[in-house]
Design goal:
With 289 residues, this protein is an alpha+beta fold. It contains eight helices and nine strands. Strand 8 and strand 9 form a beta hairpin. Helix 1 crosses helix 3 and helix 5 runs antiparallel to helix 6. The protein starts with a helix and ends in a 7-residue tail after the last helix.
């Protein structure tokens, strides 16, 4: 199989502007880079009893690292197809069986990164606002690798009040640690007393919601991974046809759509997950007996 030529033809058949980059296995693989920085790896495995063309989509290293740091492993997005199919057919299958779910994962990872970037910007603004009236300096946390999370910023100040202010990344309480000369202590105490007390009034109810530790809680990413892994388990171990695979993929999409929108019907699932009309997707099985 001429993988470089096949990959170039696939790039032409996919919607949007796709480019082809070399892989790591000579002429047996290529990377397809999409218009929104999608990364799809195509590998021709000729060593199996039945040669297959394997396609897998992955997140950029920075986004993958961020998800792992927050306990959200990246779901696997991969399919296998027959190398005898045309590039246009493989492109169409890649779009509906691989790219739809992968793009949701990509969007979720980017939203997570945006939230972390916003946290870091808020932390930095507060740190400098604290430092300015004290003539202090801000010690920024050092990056510790790709996808590092914004950490606490330390404001160091000196003078009659000597110490630090620790500014959290997530908008929580700022922690001040300082020392003051004995002759100034009463003045500082009087100033601190001007702040309102945080004591709750009698009979007030704490603002928290108890949870039952015996009830398991799962993130959307964990549910998505389990459902997709279950689908892959069936298609990998059973001799399914293309139409079988499409139906299993539709069930996966329906389950994840119902997770977000419990009342969604089948047409809503198709509109949400497929770049075509519900009638066209329904027609894939109209003559299935």
């Amino acid at each position: 199989m001429d993988v470089p030529t096949f990959a170039a033809a696939m790039a032409e058949a996919l919607a949007g502007t796709w480019t082809v980059e070399p892989g790591h296995h000579g002429d047996r693989d290529r990377y397809l880079i999409g218009p929104d920085s999608e990364q799809v790896h195509m590998y021709y495995d000729a060593e199996e009893k039945t040669p297959r063309l394997k396609l897998s989509a992955s997140l950029p290293a920075e986004l993958a690292s961020i998800r792992h740091r927050h306990g959200n492993p990246v779901p696997s997005h991969d399919i296998t197809v027959s190398p005898t199919k045309t590039p246009a057919t493989v492109a169409a299958e890649t779009t509906r069986r691989l790219l739809l779910a992968y793009r949701r994962t990509l969007a979720e990872a980017r939203e997570l990164k945006q939230r972390l970037d916003e946290q870091a910007a808020t932390r930095d603004r507060l740190a400098h606002a604290i430092a300015a009236p004290l003539g202090a300096t801000v010690q920024q946390p050092r990056p510790d690798g790709p996808g590092w999370d914004p950490q606490e910023a330390i404001v160091r100040y000196a003078g009659p009040l000597a110490g630090t202010a620790t500014v959290p990344r997530n908008g929580g309480h700022v922690t001040f640690i300082f020392s003051v000369a004995a002759e100034d202590a009463a003045q500082v105490a009087a100033f601190l007393a001007t702040f309102p007390h945080a004591d709750q009034s009698a009979g007030s109810t704490p603002q928290w919601t108890p949870t039952d530790p015996s009830v398991p809680h799962f993130t959307r990413e964990q549910v998505s991974r389990a459902v997709n892994d279950g689908a892959d388990l069936v298609t990998d171990d059973l001799p399914t046809s293309e139409r079988d695979d499409d139906l299993i993929n539709l069930v996966v999409n329906a389950a994840l759509t119902r997770l977000d929108t419990p009342g969604a019907d089948l047409d809503q699932v198709i509109i949400e997950c497929y770049d075509t009309e519900p009638s066209e997707v329904r027609a894939w099985w109209s003559d299935w007996s």
